Amino acid sequence: MKKHIKIDFVSDVSCPWCAVGLASLQTALTRLEGDVQVDLTFQPFELNPNMVPEGEDTTEHLTKKYGSTPEQSASIRETLRARGAALGFTFNLDKRSRIYNTFNAHRLLHWAHIEGRQLALKQALLKAYFTDGENPSDTATLIRIAAEAGLDTSQAASILASDMYAAEVREQEQFYQQQGIHSVPAVIINERHLISGGQAPEVFEQALRQIASLATQDA
Question: In 127-164, which residue ranges form alpha helices assigned H by DSSP?
Fold first, then answer.
């Protein structure tokens, strides 16, 4: 009998380690097929909630925010490229010239969850930003990505032209911040167990097997 596991994946679509973490988690889940049944939900987190509409230059932003030297930034980019390649995700970080606000992307992700297309939209958003260097705050781009994820474009446009789901996204953001989540990815399993960062697939696999075992013992 499959064990049911609930996973809340707290992340931002402008977070490269979230792309790594998701690819790692999906690799682990593939290895666990037949053993566990997973309910995966993406929860919102904004790395830059006060970002100006036009965004900021990536190098300038990272230097200002983290104090990274050009050499450190280059090393991190290479690490991300290698980790992504090993997991089947392509980072073209030279195309990611600017950092943008992602609130509207999170509103679409909230809607996509209702429509049962949240994973498809999350993957499309990560690819658009980190592989293709697109702007995840641009309305036309978001509508096109929603279509790629199998969502209705007219409804996506209506959501983006309104404040629909804004309150729900802010409520979820505040909830996870109040729970002590201040960096992402944060992977919360069965609302009790936290795995932080872009861990390797083996870390997720081992944790999920242990948690599934504990669920069996508690049953």
Answer: 139-148, 153-160
Q: How far apart are CA 71 and CA 28, in angstroms?
A: 32
From residue 145, give the alpha-carbon distance in Å to each of 15, 44, 150, 193. Answer: 18, 18, 9, 32
Residues near 117 by beta carbon (within 8 Å), at least 6 away in sequence: 149, 150, 151
Quote the tokens at residue 80.
């991300």
CATH code for the domain of 174: 3.40.30.10
Cα–Cα distance, 1 to 128 (Å, whole number): 38
* Structure confidence at residue 219 as a pLDDT band (50, 70, 90): very low
pTM for the model stands at: 0.95
* Residue 84 pLDDT class (50, 70, 90 cuts): very high
Domain interval for residue 74: 3-218
Residue whose structure tokens are 């309150």? 167
The region of weakest confidence among 2-6, 100-104, 125-129, 168-172 is 2-6
**What is the three-class DSSP state of 98?**
strand
Counting the structural domains of the chain, the total is: 1
Residue-level pLDDT at 216 = 54
Residue 106: Cβ-neighbour burial (10 angstroms; 0-12, 13-18, 19+): buried
pLDDT band at 68 (very low <50, low <70, confident <90, very high): confident
